[in-house]
Specification:
Number of helices: 8
Distance between the termini: 26 Å
Number of strands: 8
Helix content: 40-55%
Order of helices and strands: HHHEEHEEHHHEEHEE
Largest sheet: 4 strands, antiparallel
Strand order of the largest sheet: 1-2-4-3
Length: 211
Amino acid sequence: LRKKKFAKNFQKLSKKKLQKKEIMLDTKSIPYSPIDIKKEIRLPTKLTPELAEIIGAHTGDGTLSTKRYYFSIRTSIFEEEYFTKHVFPLYKRTFNINLKLLKRPPICGFETSSKAIHYFKNQIFGLPIGTKTHKIGVSPLISESNDKKIMGAFLRGVFDTDGCVYFSKHQTYPVLSITVKSKKAIKGMGLLLKKLGYDPHINLKSYTVYL
């Protein structure tokens, strides 16, 4: 019954007109460490496409550690330029934080610590601390925005870290797919794609959404 209800609601989204909503973020209770203050770390008070992309990239390959407010995003060693020319400027504009490239074959990315950003990611967007397998999902804030730029930016962040393009044996056009080991995340991304007017295919057994 739950599967039938999900499929029915999924189909309705393609016919529903989106009403964009501005999402404000209440960061007043987020604590800052003395180091955060010294570094002049700042937290955004409004959901923007750039912030949505950051949350998407973390959803794909990010980690919030249980110790010392550590967080990271690490992916293939071949993605150095993606980090230095795209991700790092995003974090600088959004949080005023300077990141350094972590290059440790076969991975590259970054790892750093910030009490304020760690709390922000967890308390505002619900990103899990520790293991995220089967726990992580799409933040309701992303979906509730009904903003195509925000939803698209989030999906771009996930795709850049956990997506791939390939040609099927039975088709002459490319297939785009995202694999995240969480049914909540896959269902959530499928709904976002549907809101954006696409017709995605979801395979919960392989934790994958396809276009």
